[in-house]
Amino acid sequence: MSPVVPAAVEAAREIVDPVMREAVARLDPITARVAAYHLGWADAAGQAVAHGGKALRPALAVLSARAARGGPDVGADAGAVAGAAVELVHAFSLLHDDIMDGDRVRRHRPAAWTVFGRSEAILAGDALLALAGELLIERGTPGFVDAARALARTTRGLIAGQGLDLEFERRDDVTLEECLRMSARKTGDLLACACSIGATAAGGPGPLASSLAAFGMEAGVAFQLADDLLGIWGSPEATGKPVLSDLRARKKSLPVVAALTSGTAAGERLARLLALPGPPAEPDLRDAARLVEEAGGRDWAETEAKHRLDAAGLHLDAVDMPADVRADFLDIVLSLAARDR
User: Fold this and answer.
1) Fewer Cβ neighbours under 10 Å: the N or C end of the chain?
2) Cβ distance 157 to 216 under 8 Å?
3) For residue range 136-190, what is the model confidence (pLDDT) as tens digits?
4) What is the maximum alpha-carbon separation in the chain?
5) CATH number at residue 129
6) Is residue 323 part of a domain?
7) How many domains is the chain built from?
8) What does the alpha-carbon distance between residue 129 and residue 221 come to, in Å, rounded to a whole number?
9) pTM, rounded to two decimals
């Protein structure tokens, strides 16, 4: 069953998509072809298809511009351009992530690197990142310059989080606190930016942007928790990836680390199972999922996600904004954290 797409997401897609397409059209034909495939606009032969992403982050950027300016039409350019920039950075990160993680499927079809090659996908990711900054800087207003600076800081945080994720693959002593910090950088930073960059670009007050960023950070960690739960127990229809994919890759996801550090017999058995050499067999993967749950990893992740969403709501309550904008913010964030599993 397909998840219901919030109305604010569809509305944002209509104004953000043309900005993204114009930006990608600036690229050389080879790189543009890889980018169009990855973004879901074209098939491997370059023929147009309707297979795009969810556009949740662009919608948050559009909403933050509305929170700064009041109405759906005021500050529309700020929201559209900021939303496009955020989505381009997100697309850059996914292109590189798929290569680093060896993921062969993205959104229910072959990942771009498996179609065009690793080097071509890396270059396309680099190009999308460059376009994101270009879109903001070329507007030239103080708000857009500040937005470009914020997006650059966010990208550094995202990269730092990805670096920690890679380091954790080589360690057996990852703590839950370290894993939460990694998730805050890898996922929380970009969602915090999405929730505030439109307000920054529109020239909104600093306290508004700060509160929206704090809202986005908590929501981002909740989203990562939901994503980690899907990585173990999600169906391929919901995730676009094979079942038990995170355990197959031995990822130090939040539920797994919670189980490994639980001090339980199940957690100790899980550690021994994950330490076995060679690719894990399917029965071992099912045993690992059961042990994560038995050690309390699943319950902890679900409870922590709820706490993070509650904290996000408190940050949003502190912001003065139109009631419909507040409702749309909450609608999108709840859809992020409550996907089918």
Assistant:
1) N
2) no
3) 999 999 999 999 999 999 999 999 999 999 999 889 899 999 999 999 999 999 9
4) 59
5) 1.10.600.10
6) yes
7) 1
8) 23
9) 0.93
